[in-house]
Amino acid sequence: MRRVFLTLYAIGVMALPVITPALAQTAEERARALAAHPPQDLDTYYSLKTEIGDDQTGAVLTALTALAYTEANIPVGDVVSGCRLPQWNAPVSAGLLLALSASDRATWTLYRDDARKRLADWDRIWGLLQKQEKTEADFDAVAGQIAASQHEPTEKGRTLAQRVARDQFERRSAQITSEKRLWAQGAAEPVHLYLSAIIYAHTCAADIDNTMWLKSQLAESGGSAYRFTVPMPTKMRGFWFSTPITMSLSRNRY
């Protein structure tokens, strides 16, 4: 028995020089792992930076960009409009950039907590709108759309009205963030860039979801964008329906 143990031990020791290098991950491997399972906890990004250093974290960020362009079938370096890059790209890249911007753990904690609080403030506004409670004047039009949706005579009409409201909330939020107002007011530049990326990702997610829903409705009706027969919300005819929908379908953006 002792001889068997010593033999196994010897094999293990001899194998170590072979196994250990194989465990090291390349920047491309780390990028693929982050893309496949985007971290939900911001601390994951800072922990990665602490583990591999700034230079290697930057290399992972570069690899992420290349992977995103490859998945979207776009040449790296091309200017990208709309939401053509994978949905994981903006939040994962933003998390890495925020971590790289922090010179030490104290700064990281400050950035992380501030970003979380500001995003919670932004999300709270949507919650208030959904409950039809008073919120920021910037969203009065969205509040009106949500209220109008309650009076739509059909389920599809109500669904469409709610989707319009969400679409306009996201777009208005992106504009407010770029103007550094409300939840973005006074944010440090790294935090502001992070907020912009996350809200952009939410806007794209809403765009993609709305487009897929509309395509399914068009498939059911057997029509084109100009023959779509879902009753339009009374106060929104010719507004969101006539432009983003037909444009997204005709350009095959998603």
From TrEMBL:
Keyword Signal applies: yes
Keywords: Signal
Superkingdom per UniProt: Bacteria
Secretion signal, residue range per the UniProt entry: 1-24
Stated name of the protein: DUF4034 domain-containing protein
